[in-house]
Structure formats: structure tokens, C-alpha cells
Specification:
The protein is an all-alpha fold. The protein has helices spanning 6-13, 17-22, 43-65, 68-74, 80-94, 98-134, 153-182, 190-224, 227-247, 261-274, 320-325, 337-354, 356-364, 369-375, 393-418, 426-457, 475-498, 505-534, 552-576, and strands at residues 377-378, 380-381, 384-385, 467-470. A hairpin with a 2-residue loop joins strand 2 and strand 3.
């Protein structure tokens, strides 16, 4: 009988057809580094635990994010523009910290342990935030008439400590959970590849189930039962997310970390610079690559050579000095074709990636300007007052509606016309979402024009009061944002997982999330610029504290215009993009 150490060798040498059929072909292992059987691990057997983790974690996150602007304005007594900037800055940070988690996951810890460590940080942050809204000493005094005392530095400190611990914690989770879920499907198995496409749809579905509970039950509790309980319940669900994740450990497939992707990119740059005077051979087979079927990069398949960005191919030229020395093991002097192609892929992705920033700025309005617009509309439904942030429920309903429709109806129809396994390519899918996002801003602008007209007709322009226009007029703009998400955000998840090098998947997932971060920062920048320009000369500006005297509609038109220009640039970049070729 062969030893455990012999088992991988049998697979590598192809000596056992039975073992090859039973084991995964993408190099995945169990928690202890042993080969895994297809029949007992991964696929939809393991995914419920991952989807459950994501659902509960997103419930916790949106339990904070959805109504955060209301907490800042009503409890910490911040102005509309200042509160909106704080929300988008924090949201942006939540999508910037994934770069930290991604590098740790790809280089050192692997996705599983990265999720485990950062989930704990996340949970500590949730508990700190709950304390800031529960302990009387940490809560600012209530307003007396129109005088609202500012929060003390200590009160701000505890609140923002909890908030930014959450931002750090989410950094290890966001880039890893979707990639870890996709790792459960063998890339070398055509049947599992198709199922992986469905996984991304249902992954986003799980996100929005959590968001649905947050925007309805949790928001209502915050407005009616108190912010301590409203923050405490999401903290409990974060604990449930951690328990769900660890419960599926025996069923998971694990990919080994491949070393620092940032180091590998620097090595290509240094090696190509050192050989800048050499000419790239016309025959690409003369470039350096490992002779066996395995890549020199742990956990990665080899990549085929491409003719673009040939200046980087200089890093893989075997020079006379290399031949004389006989040492091909120093990647700062000589890189493999696969290592060079990794950097090429990231560079090719960049233009497509950059066009996601404006879309994310549009998406950011749902937790800022849409909410502020809703607060000055008629929010009564019988004897019940609807929290303005609860309208984001219709965004979630839209996603819940579109995901099954896309997976079970649109994909089969599109597949007949395109011949693609997933119906639409990732690039086509993202482009459709960008177009829908323009429509969402147009809808928001039209609602605001109607609201301002009513305010003018009823002589409410100078009064900071609600206008008798029902808040449900906002439903179309939320529904359109939800539709745009299903196409663009899910398309991004697929694109950055499938097109990324095998050993950089967490990093590329983090880069896709970085567009959300930069979109939030862009939204903050636009608000700052618009406020500065439109308030000059003593004017109230587009976004004053009294929106009845503002021109929020112009802000939405501005975003619609930026989105249109962004979509035109995206179409140009998508047509130029060349797909990854894994050998």
C-alpha cells in the first residue's frame, strides 16, 4: 500500500486513472494539505456554509451601513453634507482594506485563515459600536428645541473606533469569501465550471437576503426600539456568521497561498529593467518557463504567452550571463513566462477596472442622497412612519427578483444566441449594468424635480419640512439600482475571479472591491466640490440642510452625465480587452 506521501506523486505521474478521476484537477487540498476527493468535498455540498456566512455577515454590515447617515444626523447631530461625507468615507475604507486581507490571503495565510482572523476583528468592532450606542456616557445629549450639543471627543472616539474596526475586519472577509466559494468548484471540470457561474449569482443573492433583513427589521428597530438594540442584533449575527463558516471546514477545498503577488510583480519590473537592452526573441518558446507541467508559482497553473506588452517579456529572456551562471532560480534576474503574464493580465484589466469607479459612486447614493431625499418626503403609511433608509428594501427586492430571473431565464435564452456557457460574457453583463445605472440617476432626478415643484407650489421652499409627495415615488430609482447591481457587481465578481491569475484571485477580488471604495471617495469628492461651488456668494447650494431650498436634482443629473461618459469609455475598453489563456 502506498504512503500518504506517495499519493500526490501518483496523481502527478498519471499512474492511477482512478485517482485522477476522483480527485480535483486544480491542485486543491483539504485543511492539512492532502489531495481531496471530488465526491466528498466542495461544490454545492460546501457552499451553503459559505453562503450562510456571507448572508449573516452582510446582515451585520448593512445593519450598520443602511441607516448610518440617520444615526450621524439625529444622534451625533451632524449636518447633511458632513454626515454624507462621513458615511461615504467609511464605506470607501471598508472597500479599501480588502487589499490588506487579499495580500495576506494570497501570500501567506490562505483564504480560510484570513477569513477566520479578520472575522474576529470584525466581531470586536461590532461589539464596540454597540457599546457606543448603549452606554449613556458614550451617547451625546439630546437636542433642546433647535439647539443640538455636539458629541464629545471621547464619544466620537469610541463610535469611530468601533466603526473602523469593522472596516478593518471586513477587509479580510470581502476579497476572500467569494473567491473561497468559487474555489469549491474545479476549474478543470467543465460541469463544475458552469455551476461556479451560478455560485456567483447566488452569492450575491445571499448578500441581499442579509441586506433585506437589515433594511426592514433592523432599521425599524433602530428607529423605534433604540440604537443599542439596533446595533446589538447585527453583532449577534456576525457571531453566527463566524460559527457558520467554521462548521463547513471538513467539506471545504483549499488552495495553497502562492507567495506575495506584489513581490512577483516587482520582480518582473526589476528583471525586465535589467535586460532592457536585450531584444525579445521572435520565437516565444525561447523565453524561460519551467520544463515540467507545473508552474513555479505555488497554487497556479501555467499561463500562455501573449504578444502584448512585449517590453515585460525581457524579464523572461535567458541571457548569456544566465546560461554561463546556470542558476535560473533568482526571479529578480529571470522570471518565468507565467510570472510575466500575471503582470500583463493586471495591466490589461486596469481600464475595465477603472470604469467601475463611477458606477460605485452612483451606488453610494443609495445610503446617502436617496436617504436624505426620502427624509423630506411624505413617509406616513396610515399610522406608521416609514424610515427613509427602509426604501433600500426595494433595491434588495430588485436583486432578489433579478438573480433567479437572470440565472434561470435570461442565461438559457442568451446561451442560445451567444453559445457561451453563462449566456453573457462578464464584460457584456457589466456593460448592461452601467446603462441601467444611468436610468436610476435619471429617475432620481425626475422625482426630485417633482418634489421641488410641490414645495414651491405650497410655499415650503424656506421651511425644512416634509413635502407631501409619497416616499414610494423613490421605488423606481431603488429598483433600477438593484437591477444594475445584478449585472455589474456580479459581473465584476465573475470577471475578476475568472480572468485573474490563479495565485492572485484574492488580490483581484480586492481590486474589484477597490472600485467601490474609490466610488465612495469620488462621491465624497463630488459632494465637496458641488457644495463649495454652489454655495459661493451666500447661495444655499444644491445640497443645503434644508433640501427644499436646494437643487438635489442637479446633483443627480450630474451623476447621470458622468455615468454616460463612463459607459462610452467602458465600451471602448471592453472591445480592446483580451481574455486570459491558461495552459
Amino acid at each position: 500500500m502506498g504512503t500518504q506521501q506517495d499519493y500526490p506523486l501518483l496523481l502527478d505521474d498519471g499512474l492511477s486513472q482512478v485517482n485522477n478521476d476522483q480527485c480535483t484537477g486544480d491542485g486543491s487540498t483539504d485543511l492539512h494539505g492532502n489531495p481531496v476527493l471530488k465526491s466528498k468535498t466542495g461544490k454545492w455540498k460546501a457552499c451553503p456554509f459559505i453562503l450562510g456566512t456571507e448572508c449573516c455577515e452582510r446582515l451585520a454590515y448593512y445593519g450598520i451601513a443602511t441607516n448610518l447617515v440617520s444615526y450621524l444626523t439625529t444622534k451625533l447631530h451632524e449636518g447633511n453634507a458632513y454626515a454624507a461625507r462621513n458615511v461615504t468615507t467609511w464605506s470607501g475604507t471598508c472597500y479599501l482594506t480588502p487589499l490588506i486581507g487579499a495580500v495576506l490571503a494570497d501570500a501567506y495565510w490562505g483564504r480560510y485563515w484570513t477569513i477566520a482572523v479578520f472575522s474576529t476583528i470584525y466581531f470586536i468592532g461590532m461589539c464596540t459600536l454597540t457599546l457606543s450606542a448603549s452606554v449613556p456616557a458614550f451617547i451625546p445629549a439630546e437636542c433642546v428645541d433647535s439647539v443640538c450639543p455636539s458629541a464629545t471627543p471621547a464619544q466620537y472616539g469610541v463610535f469611530f473606533l468601533g466603526l473602523y474596526l469593522i472596516a478593518l475586519g471586513t477587509g479580510g472577509i470581502k476579497p476572500c469569501v467569494s473567491s473561497f466559494g468559487a474555489d469549491q468548484f474545479d476549474d478543470t471540470d467543465s460541469n463544475e465550471r458552469v455551476k461556479k457561474g451560478s455560485f456567483f449569482n447566488w452569492f450575491y443573492f445571499s448578500i441581499n437576503i442579509g441586506a433585506f433583513v437589515s433594511s426592514t427589521v433592523i432599521v425599524w428597530m433602530q428607529e423605534n426600539a433604540g440604537w443599542g438594540l439596533g446595533f446589538g442584533i447585527p453583532a449577534i449575527f456576525m457571531g453566527i456568521a463566524i460559527a457558520s463558516f467554521f462548521s463547513g471546514t471538513p467539506l471545504y477545498r483549499f488552495q495553497k497561498p502562492g507567495g506575495s503577488p506584489l513581490t512577483r510583480m516587482c520582480q518582473v519590473g526589476v528583471a525586465s529593467f535589467r535586460k532592457w537592452t536585450l531584444d525579445v526573441p521572435l520565437d516565444s518558446s525561447l523565453l524561460y518557463e519551467t520544463p515540467d507541467k507545473h508552474s513555479a508559482i505555488e497554487g497556479s497553473r501555467k499561463l500562455e504567452h501573449t504578444e502584448e506588452l512585449t517590453c515585460l517579456d525581457k524579464a523572461a529572456i535567458v541571457s548569456e550571463a544566465d546560461r554561463e551562471d546556470g542558476d535560473f532560480s533568482n526571479p529578480w534576474r529571470l522570471c518565468t513566462v507565467t510570472q510575466v503574464e500575471e503582470l500583463k493580465i493586471l495591466i490589461r484589466m486596469f481600464p475595465v477596472w477603472a470604469t467601475g469607479i463611477v458606477f460605485s459612486a452612483v451606488y453610494a447614493q443609495m445610503s446617502t442622497m436617496f436617504v436624505e431625499q426620502g427624509t423630506v418626503m411624505d413617509r406616513t403609511l396610515g399610522s406608521f412612519t416609514i424610515p427613509a433608509a427602509s426604501l433600500s428594501t426595494f433595491d434588495v427586492i430588485s436583486v432578489i427578483f433579478w438573480v433567479p430571473l437572470y440565472d434561470s431565464v435570461l442565461v438559457p435564452i442568451a446561451r442560445k444566441f451567444t453559445g457561451k456557457e453563462r449566456g453573457f460574457s462578464e464584460l457584456q453583463r457589466m456593460g448592461i449594468g452601467l446603462f441601467i445605472s444611468i436610468l436610476s440617476m435619471v429617475a432620481a432626478a425626475l422625482v426630485e424635480i417633482k418634489r421641488l415643484q410641490i414645495a414651491k407650489d405650497l410655499d415650503l421652499v424656506d421651511k425644512n419640512v416634509q413635502v407631501p409627495l409619497n416616499i414610494f415615488w423613490q421605488v423606481p430609482q431603488y429598483f433600477l439600482v438593484g437591477a444594475a447591481e445584478v449585472f455589474t457587481f456580479v459581473g465584476q465578481l465573475e470577471f475578476f475571479y475568472d480572468q485573474s491569475p490563479d495565485a492572485m484571485r484574492s488580490l483581484c477580488s480586492a481590486l474589484s472591491l477597490l472600485t467601490t471604495s474609490l466610488g465612495n471617495y469620488l462621491s465624497s469628492l463630488i459632494v465637496t466640490i458641488v457644495t463649495a461651488v454652489t454655495t459661493s456668494g451666500g447661495r444655499p447650494g444644491w445640497i443645503p440642510d434644508n433640501l427644499n431650498s436646494g437643487r438635489l436634482d442637479n446633483f443627480f443629473w450630474l451623476l447621470a452625465g458622468l455615468s454616460f461618459v463612463n459607459m462610452v469609455l467602458y465600451v471602448f475598453c471592453a472591445k480592446k480587452y483580451k481574455q486570459k489563456k491558461a495552459s
